[in-house]
Amino acid sequence: MSSLPREFAEPLHRRMAELSPLASKVIWHAETGSTNADAAALAEGGGPEGAVVLADLQTAGRGRLGRSWSSPPGAGIYASILLRPEPGVASLLSIAAGVAIAEAIEEVSGLSPGLKWPNDVYLDGGEAHPPRKVAGILAEGGVSGGKTWVVVSFGINVLPAALPPQLTQATSIEIELGRAVDRGELLAACLVRLSARYADLKAGRRAAVLDTWRGRAASTFGRRVEWDDGGAVVSGTVTDIDDDGGLVVATASGAARIVSGEVRWP
Hints:
Layout: H1 6-14, H2 16-19, E1 26-29, H3 35-44, E2 52-55, E3 76-83, H4 87-90, H5 93-109, E4 114-116, E5 120-123, E6 132-144, E7 147-157, H6 173-177, H7 183-202, H8 206-216, E8 224-229, E9 232-241, E10 247-251, E11 254-258
Parallel strand pairs: 1-2
Antiparallel strand pairs: 2-3, 3-7, 4-5, 5-6, 6-7, 8-9, 9-10, 10-11
Helix pairs in contact: 1-7, 5-7, 5-8
């Protein structure tokens, strides 16, 4: 662990009044295995709510279902935040984080990201390109000392170097903009927006979060999805998300609710 670089320290300092309870503690690694694993260890050790773990390089960055997340040095934002929510809030943290990251990217870049359940933030390339992923979110939790904790992690592709050659369905903010983006300003905006959406959930304003998510995911409603269930492939049409963030799908045998596992969007 080393001192937080000025690139991130100055924007966070300027927006400190908007961040609470986030950034109560900020831990910076020039290199680490996984900010998610670091934050989970912090949670198990009684770390404070709002603690943020940042890294310039992850050697074992993780996405959902054990997938890896490419995390080359200096090319993206790799962050994990420790939260200690009430149970009713915890179920919607991934949804709230998606809204917050999309809002922050729009604030800093002017781009208008969409959302795809459960954790993709994407940019629509128009007729020339299909929608391409620009950020991903992972929310994982546990119980320590009788108290629930959740680590919300996100990775954002900022520079073109963030993309491995084999990832043809991904993009970066700078590829889309054709100009440089300040990573520090983007990180600060992400944490400010996440703090605001977390406050919405804690204050019972779930509808505000869910409706905003639906607005950014509108193009995914009506799309076909498929998933594995007991060795069989089930498919249907996405109709909505429910009040707990589960995906609602119309199938031949009726409505299905998906809360975890692999969903494929053919």
